[in-house]
Amino acid sequence: MLISTPNFDFNAKFPKANGDCFARKGFVDPTGRTDRVFRHSDHKIEMTGAEFRNWAETAAADWGYDVEVSGVGSSSIPSFYPCDDITESPRPIYASQTAIFRIATGMPLRSPRSVRTMQLPFTPSSKESSHPHKLAGRFTLPATAPGIGQRSSPEEVRAKVRDFFTGSSVNEVSLAELWGVLDIAGACGGSKRWLVGSLGGYGDCPALDGNDEDEFEFKVKKVKDVGLAVQWKEWTPRAEEIPRNWGKPVQNGGEHTSHTPAQGW
Questions:
Q1: Which residue from 5, 96, 133, 251 puts its CA 20 to 30 A from 240's CA?
Q2: Domain that holds residue 36
Q3: Is residue 175 in some structural domain?
């Protein structure tokens, strides 16, 4: 993996880099993290050679990588960093710094969750953040509606389905719509096969009561472009549709949760 960033040390090569008027020649750090003046308007970060090398070597050690720090771009008259060891060649001051990360051989890979987070050398700490986060809202969203965890008898399931159709203006609905009623799904313990079996069965799902299909007041059938549907044979039309209990909705905005016992699964 290759990472590169502009070298702030290279700015000394520009005229009047240390003068009072340089701010009018360059561009103030747009992120506000430093009081540095960058050399291009599109730069979001300019690190010194020491900062970049320390960051790269620390990151490589934490994540199990080998790193090679170098750079690209030099002026017509190259400049070099001071070298304390006379046996080593001085390092050039490049316009852009580069770090090549390679996975270290023979080292066990560490999970990213086991590695501590690390800030850039000039990034303010969380206590010094100039843009603190503000909580907009907190919501509790259960994965499923809780239920008693037990299946009701087939007759009890049919009673709940009967109540559903009693308040309806139609005698046939899709199995999916019926399953969306929490009372019905909860009575089946989360099993659609139990629901189909309680209503007389279909296909490889036999009737739970062992009765003949004609003896059931409900019929499960396949409808084109719909899938399985449930029909109540004994349904009679109603002038008005009776409101049904679909469960208590969770309100939006702020933190809300239902304090009443769940009516489904």
A1: 251
A2: 2-103
A3: yes
- Give how far the C-alpha of residue 135 lies from the chain's centroid of Cα atoms, to the nearest Å: 17
Name which residue leads in pLDDT, 159 or 256: 159
Residue pair 175/230 in contact by the 8 Å Cβ criterion: yes
The CATH number covering residue 89 comes to 3.40.50.150
**Total structural domains within the chain:** 2
Q: Mean pLDDT check: name the lowest of 13-27, 72-86, 231-245.
A: 13-27
Question: What CA–CA distance (Å, rounded) separates 64 from 110?
Answer: 7
Is the model's pLDDT at 255 over the cut of 90? no
Cα distance between residue 175 and residue 193, in whole Å: 11
Which residue in the block uniquely carries the two structure tokens 């005698």? Answer: 171
Residue 184: pLDDT above 70? yes
214 or 225, higher pLDDT: 225
Query: Contact 187/151 with Cβ under 8 angstroms?
Result: yes
